[in-house]
Amino acid sequence: MAVNRLYQRFNVNRQRSFIGFLVAGAIALLVIAIAGFYWFFAKSPANLIASTSQPGAAIFVSKLSPVMVSLLANPDRLQALEQEEELSKLKTSLFAKSGIDYKQDIQPWLGNEITLAITTLDIDRDLENGQQPGYLLALSTQQPEKSREFVELLFSKRALAGANLAVEQYKGVKLISDNSQPEQDLLAGAVVGKDFVLFANDPKVLRDAINNVQAPDLNLTSSPEYQKATKQLPKGGLAVAFLNLPIVAKWQGLELPEQLYNSQIISLALNPKGLLAETTFLTSSEIVPPSLPLSKPVGALQYIPASTGLAISGSNLSNLGDSDVAKLWRQATATIYGSKEDVVSRLAKPLADVQKRWGINFPEDIFSWVQGEYAIALLPEEQTTPHWIFVVEKSEGVEQGVTRLDAIASSNGLSINPLTIDKQKISAWTELTTATKKSDVKERASFSIETKVRGLHTTLGNYEIFTSDLETMDEILTTKDNSIIDNPNFKDSIAAIPLPNQGYIYLDWTKSQNLLERQVPILKLVEVLGKPFFNNLRSLTVSSYGTDTKALKGGVFFKLNNS
Fold it and tell me: pTM higher than 0.85 for the full model?
């Protein structure tokens, strides 16, 4: 069984390298496009609106495709990136092994769309030789004749390098492919009509693409799910991705415990302060929002210091576990990790540690009585565990909830002691510990008793505030005019999110990067792949909004340096 899995993985990996320089380039251009849009926003905003918000290459893609990603702008419009030499380096390394000169051979004809799609999970549908996905790369062309010359040049160079070429006419389209050895990359290409140049990892993928055009009911544009998804796209989006979620799960070999959402569409658009990535999850069920939408940021944020690295705010946690947001999270968690692993415990490990150490269950012991506004925050420290803050609006059940937490603290051996900070009365959960000291007397030791604060809570205005330590509580009490809502970066970020909405998840990347890398190591790899972007990322803000009862819509706003 293990050998078979290894063999299948080898086949998949070999197939995924099918075009080498072209596919890697398409992905890299998409990453660099995201990183570079903000540079050129300041220089020529009028030229940064895509001519269409939908990829034209969707007509080549099967409605059973798990994923399609498109850049709807010519990569050469990212000329501002030349200052950082990122795009120049990419072009040089991308075509170095192929003998192709980008400026001479590709730039003259390349249009305003690059689309990459997985068209099928298994090209030959033979389970015996492993899963071999079909990949399709579509490049729009402005000059069909020049693009034909490029395809001929590309394959002639491969022939000179030892590949055996095959040429066929298929439904009026000339297909060129090479019959390479198994250890080499297989490549097939064609110019279809006046608009697109297609490349694939197998001639069958190209034939299927042509069939999809000539039989419209086969292609993605005829899919009711895709049609519903594209209606959610904003105008002028510069990049778009569509995912068929059940097929994505099948591709990953997963059986999801909960499959509420059928598809997802993501778009990227410019904003004067950064980039807004909007996403919509579509379902045939009725969406149940976790709470009523908010027309302004919650008042609980006034007690969150501006130094916060991560802040989560909204209202009504009491039905969060049964909401469609929670169901989406469980579906996404299973898809990403292949299990029901709680990713939140990775990102907010200090809170997870509190839950474990105290023997509490957040949904039952806390969320159940939070029916008003709330805010949760982490204040990262370089060498120690981040401090945490939890603010909840006074409402029915809050007083009983606080009493319950005091009782849990007592059952865990903690004492409830009154304290005063800056004339503010505070209840502290404390623990007595002993410390041994050396003594001059032989065989005798002296002891001292120390008091450790494990948590605190107090009432300010109409809010109950919980913190992890005295220093954090003191910062809240003594810096009332320096809260996160006065932070210009936070103001710019939430201004980009439509109102009304369900609240915000705000992450200051510069303050939280080290913490996140420790908790989610894969982020380091992501940062390497998207270095131009992450080097200039200031913060990101997540929110959900929209009124469609069959779609869960939200956005992620990326605030970038110098924007």
Answer: no
